[in-house]
Design a protein that fits this description.
This protein is mainly alpha-helical and 221 residues long. The protein is 56% helix and 6% strand. The protein is built from eight helices and four strands, in the order E-H-E-E-H-H-E-H-H-H-H-H. The chain has a two-stranded parallel ribbon with strand order 1-2. It has a two-stranded parallel sheet with strand order 3-4. Helix 5 runs antiparallel to helix 6. The chain is globular, with a radius of gyration of 20 Å.
Length: 221
């Protein structure tokens, strides 16, 4: 109680705003004289691909356990986060989750390539500055509760910029080695809140890393 009350953010659904959140506020004020949280972040309901409410009678229920088994838990997490603006319902299509399974495979392939290269050359200032600007942008989105935007920006940077452009440019150019390593290392920290299992597993194979990724310093802290 001394450590965690009051907290900063209550994340909940809009459907219980008056049934639960308001009562927490009243009871917290009554018993402690302090409101229990500063901000309320409302997520929407998860609907099927056609926007219909899930129900057993309709046969359109998407089981998170089955989806995780098929595509991976991190792919499901990304599918639930990207495009999910606060307070609006999310239409969940299994094809979207499948796309993030491919993204998880892409991150693995990026890692294999980068770790197969020697850490040669000095960090290239222009590329590091570009990454740092992206990292600051993602951090700002997270701090201001634009979670969906932060996840999407990371997705596009790693797939469209890092994998499709920087890695291709680096082939046959050993001077890129240190730059690629540093960008990947810091990218894993940014991606960890969204894909914790994948990034923690990759972190465990990084040379010289003997601790958990989840306690590493945030890149822009």
């Amino acid at each position: 109680f001394k450590e965690f009350y009051p907290t900063d953010v209550m994340e909940t659904g809009a459907d219980i705003l008056f049934f639960w959140v308001a009562r927490m506020l009243m009871l917290g004020l009554y018993r402690t004289g302090k409101v229990p949280f500063k901000y309320v972040y409302l997520h929407g309901l998860v609907r099927d691909a056609k926007g219909q409410k899930m129900s057993k009678s309709k046969g359109n229920v998407i089981s998170p356990l089955e989806v995780s088994e098929k595509y991976g838990t991190d792919a499901l997490r990304m599918g639930l986060v990207v495009g999910n603006t606060p307070g609006t319902d999310l239409n969940l299509d299994p094809k979207k989750i499948e796309a993030y399974k491919k993204f998880a495979n892409k991150v693995w392939n990026i890692t294999r390539f980068v770790l197969s290269q020697e850490r040669t050359g000095e960090p290239i200032p222009a590329l590091m500055a570009e990454f740092e600007a992206m990292a600051a942008d993602v951090t700002k989105d997270i701090e201001e509760y634009r979670i969906y935007m932060a996840a999407e920006k990371l997705y596009h940077y790693l797939w469209d910029r890092f994998a499709a452009q920087l890695i291709e440019e680096s082939k046959g150019k050993p001077e890129y080695g240190e730059t690629l390593y540093r960008i990947l290392e810091q990218s894993l920290k940014l991606l960890h809140p969204f894909m914790p299992f994948l990034t923690e597993e990759i972190w465990s194979v990084f040379p010289g890393k003997d601790g958990l990724l989840m306690v590493e310093k945030w890149p822009t802290a």
